[in-house]
Design brief:
The complex is a heterodimer of chains A (158) and B (289). Chain A has 2 domains: 5-79, Beta-grasp domain (Ubiquitin-like (UB roll)); 89-155, [2Fe-2S]-binding domain (DNA polymerase, domain 1), CATH 1.10.150.120. Helix content of chain A is 32%, strand content 16%. Chain A contains 5 helices and 5 strands. Chain A has helices at residues 26-33, 89-96, 106-119, 125-131, 142-155; strands at residues 5-11, 14-20, 52-55, 58-61, 74-76. Chain A starts with a strand and ends with a helix. Chain B folds into 3 domains: 5-50, Uridine Diphospho-n-acetylenolpyruvylglucosamine Reductase, domain 2, CATH 3.30.43; 59-170, 2-Layer Sandwich (Uridine Diphospho-n-acetylenolpyruvylglucosamine Reductase, domain 3), CATH 3.30.465; 177-287, Enolase-like, domain 1 (2-Layer Sandwich). Chain B has helices spanning 12-21, 34-40, 55-58, 76-80, 83-88, 90-98, 102-105, 110-116, 123-129, 226-230, 239-252, 263-287, and strands spanning 5-7, 26-28, 47-50, 60-63, 67-71, 133-138, 141-146, 151-153, 156-157, 164-170, 177-184, 195-204, 207-216, 223-224. Chain B has 289 residues and is an alpha+beta fold. A 5-stranded antiparallel sheet of chain B has the order 4-5-10-6-7. A 4-stranded antiparallel sheet of chain B has the order 11-12-13-14, with helices on both faces. A 3-stranded parallel sheet of chain B has the order 1-3-2, with helices on one face. The chains are: A alpha+beta (158), B alpha+beta (289). Chain A binds chain B through residues 1-2, 5, 21-23, 25, 44-47, 49, 52, 55, 58-61, 63-66, 68-69, 71, 112, 130-131, 133-135, and chain B through 1-6, 8, 28, 30-32, 35-36, 38-40, 48, 50, 52, 77, 100-104, 106-107, 188-190.
Chain lengths: 158, 289
């Protein structure tokens, strides 16, 4: 009873193991145990999307996943989005469009937008807005975020 | 969150045995309601039983003669991503895509929506309209429960301690049938229904052969308004018959006033949403020909 659990995962392509309490969220495990502080704790109840990561190919709010549920899973966090030493087209487009103000929501938006473009390289504006509806920007900079995703999609054509 | 233990049994028998041996244990599917409730202190448990490794709870299988078996833990994205579901039950695919955002749909299940038993649950009125039945497994064996009898109060269900919702079973869609769930929310995405209406109609020679109508967020549980559907049987499809059924639904609602809407507003919405959902379901039934 009350033992920590040994969890084996792949994080950003690397095998990672950690010990966690069953009650710890995947977000806590990533941030506090593995030191990956890119995913942010906003609302901690699945509404804001700041903690978005890719879990076995699907975006999830990592505050609503237990660390122990990640046993055997493959996880991509915002730290794993860049390609080698170069930025991912979504990251570059966020910079070029100044698609962030305070920046707290940005890791979640980057991960979600990357997942969208992997699945649908040429999304309509409506599709982008619907797909990103689970990501909130408290600075309300949505137009620039949507434009950045559109630009990243256009840039991917080459 | 208070400490709990965690188990992820690979079989249905082991899951039920764990639930039965640990009073107060909670099954975990997508966790999008349970983890929020445990974190906020609204629920407590000593043991979380992750049921996502149990094959029966992940099943999505459709047979034109037998209908759809929908595992209780199957996440929404697998439901709307399933070609057979989209073809045979487009209204169910729509509801799975309506609940939460993409992140939530990657985890949340229709079975969890049912077991959470929120009066505003979006999937339950449609499951009632589609005539779904629940397969429940407990220490004493298996039983079946009609979806309209599953929820007993806000957050409460017919599940006895140790019992687990395994799957929902939907009969095959009748010829010339159509279904639709509509809700009202004051924004475009990701909100809790102020009111909702799920309907299914079966047409015959241009008239209604039968209909089933259920409402969301206007009673302590999702509300099956049997008499509203029965009033349509044998009637012509026209403005008068739709208005009569919508009026019965409106009168059956007994909503509360809260921050999302007043009692009067919600009752009004029941009439409007029932009529519009019936129109959409009729259209779908005609297009299915």
């Amino acid at each position: 009873m009350h033992d920590k659990v040994h969890v084996r995962t792949t994080v950003n392509g690397e095998p990672r193991e950690f010990l966690c309490e069953p009650r710890q969220s995947l977000l806590e495990c990533l941030r506090d145990i593995l030191g990956l502080t890119g995913a942010k704790e906003g609302c901690n109840d699945g509404n804001c999307g700041a903690c978005t990561v890719i879990l076995d190919g699907r975006i999830v709010t990592s505050c609503l996943v237990l660390g122990v549920e990640a046993e055997g899973a493959s996880i991509t966090t915002v730290e794993g989005i860049a390609q080698g030493t170069g930025l991912h087209p979504v990251q570059r487009a966020f910079l070029e469009n100044a698609a962030l103000q305070c920046g707290f929501c940005t890791p979640g938006f980057i991960v979600a937008a990357k997942a969208l473009l992997d699945q649908e390289p040429h999304p309509s504006e409506e599709h982008i807005r619907a797909y990103l509806a689970n990501n909130l920007c408290r600075c309300t900079g949505y137009d620039k975020i949507v434009r950045a995703v559109q630009q990243a999609a256009a840039g991917q054509e080459v | 969150m208070k400490w709990f233990d965690y188990a992820a049994p690979p079989t249905l028998d082991e899951a039920v045995a764990l639930l039965a041996a640990n009073p107060g244990a909670r099954p975990l599917a997508g966790g999008t309601d349970l983890l929020v409730q445990l974190r906020s202190g609204r629920r407590e448990t000593g043991l979380v039983v992750d049921v996502k490794r149990v094959p029966e709870l992940n099943e999505i299988s459709y047979d034109p003669a037998r209908g759809l078996t929908l595992g209780a833990a199957a996440p929404c994205y697998r439901i709307y991503g399933n070609p057979a579901v989209s073809r045979a039950y487009p209204s169910l695919a729509e509801v799975a895509a309506l609940i939460g955002g993409v992140q939530i749909q990657g985890r949340a299940s229709i079975g969890g929506n049912l077991c959470n038993a929120a009066p505003s649950a979006d999937s339950i009125p449609l499951l009632i309209a589609l005539g779904a039945r629940c397969r429940v497994q407990g220490p004493a064996g298996t039983r079946e429960v009609a979806v309209e009898e599953f929820c007993t109060a806000p957050g409460q269900t017919v599940l006895a301690p140790g019992e687990l919702l395994v799957s929902m079973h939907l009969p095959p869609p009748a010829p010339d049938s159509g279904a639709r769930y509509l809700r009202f929310i004051p924004r475009n995405e990701m909100d809790i229904a102020v009111a909702g209406a799920g309907v299914q109609v079966v047409l015959e020679n241009g008239n209604f052969r039968s209909a089933r109508i259920a409402l969301a967020a206007v009673a302590p549980t999702p509300l099956f308004v049997r008499e509203a559907g029965e009033a349509l049987a044998g009637k012509a499809v026209n403005a008068a018959s739709l208005a009569a059924a919508a009026d019965i639904a409106r009168q059956a609602a007994h909503p509360i006033t809260d921050m999302r809407g007043t009692e009067e507003y919600r009752r009004h919405l029941c009439g409007v949403l029932t009529r519009r959902a019936l129109e959409a379901a009729v259209q779908r039934a005609r297009e299915a020909r």
